[in-house]
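(Fold this chain)
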Amino acid sequence: MPTPRERATELTALWGISFDATPISGVIVEFVKTARVFRDRGYDVYLDLGYDIKSDKNAFFRPYRDENELLPEWVELARIDAISTIDDYTPEFVANVLREVVGAGHGERLRPSMRVTTDRIRDLILDKWEELCISTVIVENGTLPENIVYTAALHAAIAEYGNRHRLGRFVLWRDHDLMWQSEPSSGKYGEFPYQNTPQPVDSPFIHYLALHETARRRTLEWAPHLRNIDVLPNTFAHRRAAVTEHNAGFRRVHGIPEDVPLLSRITRIVPQKRIDRDLHLLAGLAGRTGAYLFVAGEPAECPAEYERLTALAARLGVAGRVVFGGRLAPHEADLAGAPGRFSVRDLLAHTTLVTFLTSYDYESYGNPVGEAIASGVPYVSTRYELYDTVYGNKGFRAPVLDVGVSDLPTVSFVDEVAELLENDTERAAMADFNHELGRRHFGRDSAERLLDRLFLVPMGERTRMSVVLPVFDEAANLPAVLDSLYHQRGAAGPLDRSLYEIVLVDNNSTDDTVAIARRFAEDHPDLPVHVVAEPEQGVACARRTGMDFASARSRGRGPGADERFLLVSADADCRVDPDWLCELFTAMESGKAAIGVCDYYYSAEHFTGRPRLWDAISKTLRCRAVTFALFGGFPDGKGFAVDRDVYDRVGGIEIFYQLQGGRFVNHLSDDWDFGIKVRGSGEDIVYAPGSRVEINPRRVDHAIDEVITGRAYGSDGIIVMRDIRVDAPGPGRESDLTAEEALQAWEFSVKDFTPKNTILPVLLTPSLLDDDAVVEFFGAGLAERLGRRIAEITEEMRVVDFTPIHSYKTPCYRLYFEFAEEIFARLRATVGEDIGHPPPLPPCLRDVPPDRFPEFVKYYCEDRESGDAHNYFGNGGVF
């Protein structure tokens, strides 16, 4: 008999439950999209349509009939066995609870039955989940439902099942319609904040999802105690709808001429959807376009509304051009092998314009608009309450009817629609623009990233490290990098691969980078590899996405995983030594530091025949080894680790932006700036010299001219780096430097190195000057004067927090000029005489009187307009 923990590993089934209680709707469609990701990972998928939850759909306890025909064959319809046998659990009971307990705040006569019914439903849910070995639950439209008894039972079942199997957050609870905010006039739940309605439970087993930021904000206004609520937009398959052999006869079957514009409305036929507006629009277009209207919805759902609409169409004179086509299969259904059956996608292949003239306060998301965008079809819409939140504020283009001004289509709106129908070029341009914009906002990868993080690849309790690897077109280097990560060693042999994982962040690669990563993952199943996407270009953005992803995932390791967790940075063009992870982990564990930084080196064989260049590189790395041993140093993206809790506490990687050529670019030195944030918060950094990373020589070979001139990272204070991949355009250099070039390269390298590595640590942490080893390095006199001057400058500049970008540069530069001769003397004594003396002063400082030197150094270093100080220090050296 397996233990609960052992059995938890066998749970590979998904239970979906819809509070919508309809055979097909936007809620069900979104469930299918989400469930498909699980199905592709080997899960069995079950769906309870919720007929036994809602009492107002005339389907309570109704057996399933033809619903399976509307769903993929891999979705098995299921329901809670024996629920219909529970005493008192009837449609009348559900309606009475909603009216008396929730709406009016009374209902004491019902509470005993409510408790008994809740317990009985809970037990039946648990029995069903055990029978099917459920591992993941998705609740659709469950926030503030009309059946609070069932909701209470479901909460109780989740708590019992999660504890029984020691699961993490195995439930995704998603509200689609935000009905409790968008229909306040119904009075179903009383008045906000709905005091008689149970709030969402802040359960350790539930992760809540809202469809957009407005829904998230409103939910937290009502339930501020929720700690796990994310935004996951509805997603769509961005494939243009096309006429195929299967659907070529769609218009003919429905009596629609081939040569007329077709308006399509994909909706339930209920009053709230305001299909009457579409009929008035069609009437307004009469005589101009000859357009037809197709309404895809079930007339039998609300016969009274269907009769009202058909009568209105006759009165407006458009009955002959309106087709009530009945219920179509979901947009995603592939019905190529089902003659005579059509899906929403088949309709869109023949559609000229999608209409969505819905009620102001009814829709939360407006899926038909998203389906039109994804299919490359233009649309028109009302400005319903959340239209701008979902579509308008993102820049989508469409004629929009402001229903706050006019309840029915205005003459100007009808004219705008007519002009769009008559202008093929404008329609195509609008559809193309929306299609590409929609791919960014509503593409499938956003859902897959979140599901990967929350459910699909659970992190084992033994996992202690996530290695984050940002990549952009690294197909040439990636196999060797992944191989070096795979073959990590521990103290007694290969490192246990259950201790770490790889998070590869694809930053819009155009080559085979992602395919290589996925193939590596398939070939090496013993090392978890996750591929996530970051659409904003820039290594800083990619590193932040990967670290945030790993941090969130690590918190679901399970109740037994209470050791601290490390987020580790690596670069996709640098190979790590076999002991890299083990040495880094050991150093951080023994030192209890918040950040661990690695040692970096170049392979000398790459610089054979270039002794001057090799000498400049070697001197920089020797200086680095000394100062990092003293001060701990600062993280470099090529290799560092940070305690996850510290990462989260300081706010993670921060992206800074600067103006370059009139446009914003993200700042390159996110790793250093992050280290400054951590050091400035009072945390320690430890240097792990045994944790070594081999730097790709292309960083020098393909940027050597910029290294020589001190502009490898830009100029005038703009910290960016050009593309230095081997096949990138631009000159490389295989020959050695001239003596003059070598001197210039070294001077820029050491000018960058000295302020950042000998002054910045003590500027941020003056207490380091009390450390015996630090005092020995500086000498007692210099250490005392440096500490005094740091205090003076800090007070003078009123610097309270050194963490914002560049705030550390001015004081570091000032201290460098004031103490350069003495600091270089100490470097010569500890690193070697070949370190030499400080590079020449900027010409503007050479004739300054000695007694006014600190004063003019201040002016020079604080001058932001010329950028001269930034250019003097070279904005960073690649050595």
Observations:
- The first strand starts at residue 13 and ends at 18.
- The radius of gyration is 33 Å.
- Residues 1-10 have pLDDT under 50 and may be disordered.
- Residues 761-873 form one domain.
